[in-house]
Specification:
By secondary structure, the chain is mainly α. Among the domains are: 163 residues, P-loop containing nucleotide triphosphate hydrolases (Rossmann fold); 88 residues; 85 residues, Arc Repressor Mutant, subunit A (Orthogonal Bundle). The strands form 2 sheets. A 5-stranded parallel beta sheet has the order 2-3-4-1-5, sandwiched between helices. Strands 6-8-7 form a 3-stranded antiparallel beta sheet. Helix 17 packs antiparallel against helix 18. The N terminus and C terminus are likely disordered. GO terms for molecular function: ADP binding. Pfam families: NB-ARC, TPR_12. InterPro entries: NB-ARC (IPR002182), P-loop_NTPase (IPR027417), TPR-like_helical_dom_sf (IPR011990), TPR_rpt (IPR019734).
């Protein structure tokens, strides 16, 4: 069976082929390579889709708690008319909504209109969409989130939310990234290829089929960004917020938001200030409303800042606001829907000096929510001091608490902080802050990767000159959840490191996160990240970095069937690994070349390459690689029909892998033994090996491998004439394949139908251990 690459966590198997023990590096969607040579082995720069990390509820493919969730996921639309397979159900539904706003007031008419639209959606056969439109800072997001929490119990199948980043710094979220994240929220891992929108859309729309789900698409740029995300069947409800009008969006009702009425504005101020202060300063309250132009964001900032200074008369604050307003040349509301900058300036001037510095420097972080520890690393402060600064910023509404212990900027405030930073802080300050931030994510990702797979051969990280402290992880689930939650953010950090000329950081971060992104089948984004990392390694003159990134890019090409391109990359990576003297990387390159030969059906050549990889694992003192390498030799032998030799090799590998606790390697080897024993005609031993492999795959959460082995197990049962047990195995495999969107579901369904019709007049014949019926 295809075994996960040495040092790499389980990868999705592509069916009967491509199943040499993956001792060699996960797969990504690819790019084009150039030539070998330390300064010249570079992948051409292609489009790099910078996504924003969003809150993903649901975890990783490896957590046992989520196996039931995956198995109850809705089938893709193309399967909905097929025979249904019974499976477990779960009450768990994703809730991605940010925390409800603390000081929401007013908007009674607009909220009523949303509720009317919801009632209409219950009685119509068409999809109903509500679009909240208005200028920046008018409170679209607050209203959408407030209403979503108030009616959330009417959507038992889930509440999905994403900030589409249509305005502000960075690239807008692509529909592909959004759909992949929503599928992740349900525990469904789909391969992400930046060119395969139809495939993802089919899975996404199938997921929503006949479900009651609330979908909040916040901060949308235009119709093209949201249209692929709209379900095409009734039942769910979509809320869109945008600064732009979308008159051509089908079945959409527009709710335009203007500034607050005077009464609503007064209520918003009163929600922040004590009744005593408001009663004592009625004229000042009216002045604040007037100066802020009734804009909710400005009113919230001024009120929250005033609340932190109860001993300062409101009248004095009004005078300060007027002076600040007069000092701003720009209009309050700019042509692009900007904010009252004078309010930002006034609130900023009330901050302590250290918190003001924190406000500016935090704008270096990518446009995603960030944790307290990330902020502390970026600021170069203790966690305690950073928490105090964030508390002060949140109290003044200059950052918001996003939930899950994270903080976020409003995009208008981020723009303002960036402007201040560019005119206040010198280049050295910015360089040091960026280095600390990238160091934090590099070391945290490395720690997470080590927690997920302690046996993985480690690389030596760049010096931690700022003594940044990484996240600490309690084990596999904790680490995998952190990586899954942050994967889009980490792709941005790779790009940030490359742009900051932190070249070693860039490729080392790509190495650290590659396993996780691959495990979740996000090959497209992973390939784009490896392109950036490969160029960074070239600029940094790192032979090892070039070899690693080239190898991964070769696997990307191999996954999409571009075998000649894959070979070019693998050979380029091998040349660099030989030049650097890294035995482990040499072994991984040989192993990937073996995988390529297996894909092409050249099993003798694959065997030779696995035999070349094996001594390099031994020399590199990589016990896990050596054990998996011996298993790879055994697998190649069984592909060639040399089953008894295969059993000898696999038995040896199993003992070694059991001794060091490599569960993935053990599961792969048990699968190999199942094939070898089947080839020898020892069907009882084959069944036992397959069953043990299935149990171990389930234990470690490698569902694609579990499905493949279940399919082989069912085939052996057919050969034994035990059709009931075969059907049980195949139904289980079919459920996993459908839930994960893996290939082969239709063929497996046909086998089940053949089995029910007793259309197996003779035992299945197998082609050289491939598990493929002739």
């Amino acid at each position: 069976m295809v075994h996960a690459e040495q040092g790499d966590e389980p990868t999705a198997r592509s069916g009967p082929k491509g199943r040499l023990r993956a001792v060699s590096g996960p797969t990504m969607a690819g790019a084009s390579v150039v030539t070998a040579g330390i300064a010249g082995v570079v992948v051409q720069q292609g489009q790099y889709l910078l996504g924003v990390a969003i809150v993903v509820v649901g975890g990783v493919i490896a957590t046992a708690a989520e196996i039931a969730l995956r198995r109850s996921a809705t089938r893709i639309r193309s399967d909905r008319d097929a025979a249904q397979v019974s499976g477990s159900t779960t009450d768990k539904a994703p809730d991605m909504l940010p925390a409800a706003p603390d000081h929401f007031v007013g908007r009674v008419d607009e909220l009523r209109r949303l509720t009317v639209e919801l009632e209409r959606s219950d009685s119509t056969e068409t999809m109903v969409i509500s679009s909240l439109e208005g200028m920046g800072g008018v409170g679209k997001t607050s209203m959408a989130i407030h209403w979503a929490h108030s009616i959330g119990d009417r959507f038992p199948d889930g509440r999905l939310y994403v900030d589409l980043r249509g305005f502000g710094p960075g690239s807008p979220m692509s529909p592909i990234d959004v759909m992949a994240s929503f599928l992740d929220a349900f525990g469904i891992k789909k391969p992400v290829d930046s060119s395969d929108l139809p495939m993802l859309q089919q899975a996404y729309l199938g997921l929503l089929w006949k479900k009651r789900i609330l979908i909040v698409l916040d901060n949308a740029r235009d119709r093209d960004q949201v249209e692929p995300l709209i379900p095409d069947t009734p039942g769910s409800f979509v809320i869109i917020t945008s600064r732009n009008r979308m008159p051509d969006l089908a079945n959409s009702t527009t709710i335009a938001l203007d500034v607050l009425s005077d009464l609503e504005a007064f209520d918003l101020i009163r929600s922040h200030l004590t009744a005593k202060i408001v009663a004592a300063n009625p004229g000042a309250v009216e002045d604040i409303v007037s100066i802020c132009g009734n804009l909710p964001l400005a009113l919230s900032i001024v009120s929250a800042t005033a609340a932190t200074m109860p001993d300062v008369p409101l009248g004095g604050m009004v005078d300060q606001l007027r002076r600040s307003r007069e000092s701003i040349i720009r209009d309050i509301r700019q042509a692009d829907g900007g904010a009252p900058t004078f309010v930002f300036e006034w609130s900023y001037e009330q901050l302590s000096a250290s918190t003001a510095t924190a406000f500016r420097l935090l704008s270096f972080h990518p446009s995603t929510p960030f944790s307290l520890r990330a902020a502390a690393s970026l600021l170069g402060k203790s966690v305690e001091d950073s928490a105090a600064a964030l508390d002060e910023l949140a109290a003044n509404y200059l950052v918001s608490e996003h939930g899950q212990g994270e903080y976020a900027f409003h995009d208008l405030l981020r723009d303002y902080a960036t402007l201040l930073r560019s005119t206040t802080d010198d280049h050295a300050t910015g360089t040091a802050a960026t280095r600390r931030l990238v160091d934090y994510y590099l070391r945290s990702s490395h720690a997470a990767a080590a927690a997920i797979n302690p046996l993985r051969k480690q690389i030596r990280l760049v010096n931690n000159i700022h003594r940044v402290k990484s996240e600490e992880f309690r084990g596999f689930d904790d680490a995998a959840s952190w990586l899954d939650h942050h994967y889009l953010l980490l792709l941005e950090v790779i790009d940030l490191a490359a742009r900051a000329d932190l070249n070693d950081h860039a490729w080392q971060l790509a190495w650290a996160v590659g396993d996780s992104i691959d495990r979740n089948l996000h090959w497209g984004p992973l390939g784009e990240a490896m392109q950036v990392a490969n160029e960074a390694a070239a600029r940094g003159n790192s032979k090892l970095g070039l070899a690693i990134t080239l190898r991964w890019l070769g696997r990307a090409k191999m996954k999409v069937g571009a075998y000649d391109d894959a070979r070019t990359r693998f050979l380029g990576a091998l040349e660099l690994a030989n030049s650097s003297g890294d035995k482990n990387e040499q072994a991984l390159c040989y192993h990937n070349l073996a995988l390529l030969e297996e894909e092409l059906g050249r099993y003798a050549e694959a065997l030779e390459l696995t035999q070349l990889a094996l001594p390099r694992y031994e020399t590199g003192k990589d016990a896990s690689g050596e054990g998996r390498g011996i298993n790879a030799v055994g697998w190649a032998l069984t592909l060639l029909g040399r089953h008894r030799e295969a059993v000898e090799h696999c038995d040896k590998a199993l003992g070694m892998l059991r001794q060091i606790g490599d569960r993935q390697g053990q599961a792969d080897t048990l699968d190999s033994l199942g094939h070898a024993y089947r080839g020898l005609g020892d069907l009882a031993a084959s069944v036992e090996s397959y069953r043990r492999a299935v149990a171990m795959y389930a234990e470690i959460g490698n569902l694609p491998a579990e499905a493949a082995t279940l399919e082989y197990l069912g085939a052996v049962f057919v050969t034994m004439g035990e059709h009931g047990r075969a059907a049980e195995s195949w139904r289980h495999a079919l459920k996993i394949k459908r839930d994960l969107g893996l290939p082969g579901a239709e063929k497996l369904l046909q086998r089940l139908e053949d089995l029910r019709g007793a259309r197996f007049p003779r035992p299945i014949r197998w082609a050289k251990g491939l598990g493929k019926r002739l």
